[in-house]
Design brief:
The chain is mostly beta strands. It has one helix and seven strands; from the N terminus they run ββββββαβ. The chain has a seven-stranded mixed beta sheet with strand order 5-6-1-2-3-4-7. Strand 1 and strand 2 form a beta hairpin. The protein is globular and about 30 Å long.
Length: 76
């Protein structure tokens, strides 16, 4: 887990996975989970483990999550 991430500053910022996969916008951060929302009409929510966060740079929060792995973290 990257403790250098300022979790207060990631709210409303973009979340990206491996290969620049779009995970939406960060909505909420708690002790273990980062909740993101993607889409305008059909909104996908991802409940991503904070432990998968790699870094926060250029106003984007990067996760070590592939597109395929992200499906396991998706909730309606």
């Amino acid at each position: 887990m990257n403790e250098t991430i300022d979790w207060e500053n990631v709210i409303k910022k973009e979340a990206r996975g491996l290969d620049d996969y779009d995970l939406g916008e960060v909505q909420e951060v708690n002790e273990d989970i980062v909740i993101t929302k993607k889409g305008v009409v059909d909104k996908d929510r991802f409940y991503l483990p904070r432990s998968k966060a790699l870094r926060f740079e250029d106003h984007k929060l990067w996760f070590e999550v592939s597109k395929e792995e992200a499906e396991a973290y998706k909730h309606d």
